[in-house]
Design goal:
Layout lengths: L5 E2 L2 E2 L1 H7 L4 E6 L7 E5 L2 H8 L4 E2 L24 H9 L5 H25 L3 E2 H18 L3 H16 L3 H24 L5 H9 L5 H32 L1 H9 L7 H9 L8 E3 L3 E3 L2 E3 L4 E4 L1 H7 L30 H18 L4 E2 L19 E3 L1
Parallel strand pairs: 4-10
Antiparallel strand pairs: 1-2, 3-4, 5-7, 6-12, 7-10, 8-9, 11-12
């Protein structure tokens, strides 16, 4: 829907208009005997109430050929108790201690990427040369994908999402899925110290191959896609707000909460999947009936909580409350890893290229359909 598109970094006017009406607005009513209502949640408190309530389901219950189907391993489609069981099984690799131990490897990947950019000279498209290589290499290393296989697997992932031809998207998706299946089979035989190996060693008898493949594919998609989009958007923001990133570069001790502000402002996933009300409930003073859907707009909430003009980017802002990583039981499992990548990559970019700028300042930056997708970002220094 057009309401989820962007006006540069900002919510498009249709979403701004809905935000002005309050924290909950009606998008439409189904023309059927059940007359289910589709709601949009734009308020910070309303979204936290929806995502934190056990009166809503994350499952695809209504409509389409996938109705009632939960894709194995995709945690965002599970409800308790299945969600509780699976999340417990796959949480160990994301423990803070393990993530911190992975930090030196992340920093090496960032430095190698920046070395390659600098060696090649500008101008450079920072989408395929900065966002994608850092995000996919980190995620593949975390999962335990051999370096020799990473480039081909990353291309298959990207093609499964970006190819205009439906047939090519399906073929790329099948190739990606087949490879993940082979990795799981190999890990069952010889588990290492990566994400696959940790889960297999600690909970191998409790998780099926289909679930393990699904979780790994989900993590690869989130790490290789969402993190890449954030990094590209962050590089764009850096050239648009050079004075703010100069503070991050030259006086980092004065902006300890800079990442929360970047995450809030960019909100690289504008919304999450609709939640289905399993019983009547009141949200933000609005009567939500059983069967109604509520779509949480993270972008709206992260801006509505800082009304204009205060929703402008301010790297010196005190810790910014946001829902960019979700809330409740489906809160992003990979948040510690994603934030580690951001903390390594963004300051390193600010230090390495202090004069970073648009190579073609008069050319409009094109955005793909949501989620936040910078199609190309040609930069020079």
């Amino acid at each position: 829907m057009a309401i989820h598109h962007r006006d540069g970094f900002d919510p498009a006017p249709p979403l701004r208009a809905l935000m002005a009406k309050g924290g909950m607005t009606v998008l439409g009513v189904e023309d059927a005997p059940e007359a289910r209502t589709a709601w949009l949640a734009t308020g910070y408190d309303e979204i936290r109430q929806v995502l934190g309530s056990d009166k809503f389901s994350a499952k695809l219950i209504f409509g389409g050929t996938d109705a009632g189907f939960t894709f194995p391993g995709f945690l965002t489609q599970y409800d308790p108790p299945e969600h509780t069981r699976l999340r417990r099984l796959v949480t160990p690799p994301f423990a803070i201690r393990r993530i911190q131990g992975f930090r030196p490897q992340v920093e090496k990947i960032v430095e190698a990427t920046l070395d390659a950019i600098e060696a090649g000279g500008g101008p450079v498209d920072f989408v395929p040369r900065f966002g994608w290589p850092i995000a996919t290499t980190v995620t593949c290393d975390f999962l335990g994908i051999p370096r020799d296989d990473q480039a081909e697997l990353s291309r298959a992932l990207h093609a499964s999402r970006a190819e205009k031809s439906g047939k090519r998207r399906v073929a790329a998706g099948n190739k990606f899925w087949t490879y993940m299946s082979q990795i799981v089979a190999r890990t069952r035989r010889d588990p290492g110290d990566d994400m696959f190996g940790v889960v297999v060693r600690e909970h191998g008898d409790e998780i099926t191959d289909a679930e393990l493949i699904g979780v790994a594919s989900f993590v690869m998609g989130a790490g290789g896609d969402q993190v890449a989009r954030f990094l590209a958007a962050g590089a764009w923001l850096m050239v648009e707000q050079p004075e703010q990133f100069a503070v991050l570069r030259d006086k980092p001790e004065t902006v300890p909460d800079w990442l929360d502000e970047m995450v809030r402002y960019l909100t690289s996933d504008e919304k999450t999947t609709p939640r289905i009300a399993m019983q009547d409930v009141e949200i933000g003073g609005c009567p939500i009936k059983a069967g109604d859907t509520v779509t949480p707009s993270f972008l709206a909430a992260n801006r509505a909580n800082f009304p204009n003009p205060e929703d402008a980017f301010d790297i010196t802002r005190q810790r910014a409350a946001h829902v960019a990583f979700g809330h409740g039981i489906h809160h992003c499992l990979g948040r510690p890893l994603a934030e580690m990548v951001f903390r390594a990559a963004i300051p390193a970019l600010a230090h390495r290229f202090p004069t970073l700028r648009l190579a073609e300042p008069d050319r409009e930056i094109k955005l793909g359909p949501p989620p936040f997708d910078v199609e190309a970002l040609l930069l020079d220094w």
